[in-house]
């Protein structure tokens, strides 16, 4: 399913582009550009909630990754000593 327009995940309003820039990527085979666009909800209050949710989600993912890494380290240690 492809959405024709970028809509807000909270209120469903079409998002507006507030910032866009082009990044030039250099690779062995040459250069290419990527266009970045930041889209936000036209409702500032709603956008703030979305931002908060994203930040919370990011933090949760980071914590999970750290826990996983710690477990992995612990497992390696026990493996070695056994
Ligand atoms: Zn919204």
Tell me what you see in this structure.
- Helix content is 46%, strand content 28%.
- It has one helix at 44-81, and strands at residues 16-27, 30-40.
- It has one domain.
- The mean pLDDT is 91.
- The chain is flat, with a radius of gyration of 20 Å.
- Zinc ion is lined by residues 8, 10-11, 13, 41, 43, 46.
Which tags fit this structure?
alpha+beta; 82 residues; 2 strands; flat; 1 helix; 28% strand
Radius of gyration: 20 Å
Give the overall pLDDT as a whole number: 91
Read across the widest sheet, the strand sequence of neighbours is: 1-2
Helical amount: 40-55%
Count of individual helical segments: 1
Beta content comes to: 25-35%
Bound molecule types: zinc ion
* Overall morphology: flat
Number of domains: 1
- Uncertain spans, ≥5 residues at pLDDT below 50? none
Distance between the termini: 50 Å
H-E string? EEH
């Amino acid at each position: 399913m492809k959405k024709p327009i970028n809509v807000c995940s909270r209120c469903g309003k079409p998002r507006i582009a507030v910032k866009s820039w082009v990044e030039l990527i250099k690779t062995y085979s040459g250069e290419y550009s990527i266009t970045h666009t930041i889209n936000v909800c036209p409702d500032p209050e709603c956008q703030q909630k979305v931002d908060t949710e994203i930040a919370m989600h990011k933090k949760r993912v980071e914590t999970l990754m750290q826990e996983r890494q710690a477990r992995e380290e612990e497992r390696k240690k026990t493996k070695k000593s056994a």
